[in-house]
Structures are given as C-alpha cells and as structure tokens.
Amino acid sequence: WSNLEDVNVTINLEASYDYVIVGSGSAGSILASRLSERENVTVLLLEAGGQFNEYKYSHVPGFMAEMLRTDMDWGFYTEPQSTSTLGMNDKKAYWPRGKTLGGSSVIFFFFLSRMTYSKYRQEVTAVGRLILRKIDLIPIWLIRMKVL
Known about the structure:
The protein is α/β, with parallel strands linked by helices. The chain has helices at residues 26-36, 64-67, 104-107, 117-126, 134-147; strands spanning 19-22, 43-46, 50-51, 76-77, 94-95, 100-101.
C-alpha cells in the first residue's frame, strides 16, 4: 500500500471469504491487494503482529537493530547446524522474521529485491511452464513496484 490510510483494518468479520491470506509480509500483502482488485471478491488478510507505524523505529532504516528481538520479530532460530554456526549457542543462528504489517521487509530496511532474469528462467523451467523472455517480466516488475 502506498498510504497506510488505505489499509482497512476491521474486527467485523464476514461469515466466509473467497480468499484467506495468512501473513501480511511482502508476498501476502501483494497477493491480497491484487486479488481484491477483482469485482465481487472478498479477501481476508490475517496478520499476527501489529501495524508497523506503531513502532517508533520502523520508519528509520538505520534503526533496524532496534526492531530485532522485539514484539515485531518472531525471534526464530535455525535448527542446530553441524557445519556452520559452530560458535553460536547450541549451534543455532538467530533468524529474525517480521511479525508486523509488511513482514520482514519492515525490519530489514524496506529492501526490495527481485530475482535475476536467469533465476526466473530456472524457476519457470522447473515447474514446466513456457520460458519467459526478459521483456515479458517488465510489466510484472512494474506492477510490483506500483503495489509496493
């Protein structure tokens, strides 16, 4: 969403929805936004955390460390590793994940990343679909940039 006022947070739930999206991270938010553009479609977007504008550091990228290990971070750890994280307690690495509207992109400086064309080509080939040309991806990237 380009403006937080556009976000409709409600506690009045319908009896049913056409789509239920769990998690309002980058992918969940974009999916919910795109689905809700269709007429007569109801979408429920569920988020366990709060809105990121509730946190004083969420709009300042340089304060990322202040958001880690807070209530807007799930505070996950990896499983014990045998060949890495050997200097960590119990051989586990801290794995921060955003628990807020916007998900991990909020606690990671609002970075936008996308796969390279060669990675898209590998992914599309792996699922057996037609290989996309680079020119075919430009409208997808432009839509994504508009939604974010």
